[in-house]
Automatic annotation (TrEMBL):
Luciferase-like domain sequence ranges: 18-243
SUPFAM superfamilies, per database record: Bacterial luciferase-like (SSF51679)
Domain of life (superkingdom): Bacteria
Signal peptide, first to last residue: none
Protein's name in the database: LLM class F420-dependent oxidoreductase
Pfam families in the record: Bac_luciferase
InterPro entries: Diverse_substr_monoxygenases, Lucif-like_OxRdtase_Rv2161c, Luciferase-like_dom, Luciferase-like_sf
């Protein structure tokens, strides 16, 4: 089971280059960063975790930050947890993701989500009740651009002509029964367990990225059933838990359930505090290992 790390990376925390080096030197498998473009004031939407962390309004662009981390590391995988796809122009986002994947040597995991902040999404022109449909549509458009030959796409929320576009993401296309293969980097959908979410994961993603492991023992069999019914190969399903506080028994439990990756939560703090947190987590990682493999471990 892979052990990666995440934090709310801001203009006041440890920088992405320093963090990337610290993680790779200590044997962590990956770095994941979340996304908010802005937090409108006033705001009526309630933050799911209670009081809104002030770091949400100060987050760095995940793709710029991950590019800086990529430049100073060799093995560390680089991911979003999550990217707010509905809030992006899909043609531009496809280019950003593919460029990061190319420059990093195929180290990108694309965690995507639907968002929780209605005001933020509406400022981007996202029709809030249709945001899940927007994400699905925009990912389909992006995959047309990532495909191995010029491919047009006409969707409800956007379209693109058959186009020459490079670079291409490094991960080979994944087969789907009776459907076109999935192109692009490993794509994980974040969100709470449920039949609707699991249907989307099985239809157009490579796996699931929930926050924490509550209810995981009951949820994973449901997800695996939806995956199999969609004609997907069992070994292709990838599950990454994010926002985890590591404990030996907890990690062993996740490994037993077949979780592929645990993303531990670091404090949104400066270099000294983050290093202390990493020191306390050192027993969970193996320095010097090669973490570039795309296979389940």
């Amino acid at each position: 089971m892979r052990i990666s790390a995440t934090l709310y990376l801001t203009d006041g925390t440890i920088g992405p280059a320093r963090l990337g080096r610290e993680l790779e030197e200590r044997g962590f498998d990956g770095l994941y960063v979340p996304e908010h473009t802005h937090i409108p004031v006033p705001r009526e939407t309630v933050y799911p975790g209670g009081e809104l962390p002030p770091e949400c309004a100060r987050m760095l662009s995940p793709f710029v930050a991950l590019a800086q981390a990529a430049a100073v590391t060799e093995r560390l995988t680089l991911g979003t947890n999550i990217a707010l796809v509905a809030q992006h122009d899909p043609i531009d986002l496809a280019k950003q993701v593919a460029t990061l994947d190319h420059l990093s040597g195929g180290r990108v995991t694309f965690g995507v989500g639907y968002g929780w902040n209605r005001e933020e999404a509406e400022d981007h022109g996202v029709p809030w009740p249709r945001r899940r449909a927007v994400v699905r549509d925009r990912l389909a458009l992006m995959r047309a651009l990532w495909s191995d030959r010029p491919t047009a796409y006409e969707g409800e929320f956007g379209s693109v002509r058959s186009s020459e576009v490079h670079p291409k993401p490094s991960l080979p296309p994944r087969k789907r029964l009776g459907k076109a293969p999935l192109y692009g980097p490993r794509t994980l959908i974040g969100g709470a367990a449920g039949p609707g979410l699991f249907a989307h994961v099985a239809e157009y993603a490579d796996g699931w990225m929930p926050i924490g492991g509550s209810g995981l023992r009951e949820a994973l069999p449901v997800l695996r059933t939806a995956w199999a019914e969609a004609g997907r190969e069992a070994d292709d399903l990838y599950v990454a838990l994010t926002g985890v506080t590591p404990e030996p028994g907890k990690l062993a439990h996740y490994a037993e359930l077949g979780v592929d990756e645990v993303i531990v939560q670091l404090p949104a703090a400066g270099e000294d505090e983050v290093r202390r947190a990493l020191d306390g987590m050192g027993r969970y990682v193996t320095p010097g290992k090669d973490v570039t493999s795309r296979k389940r471990t």
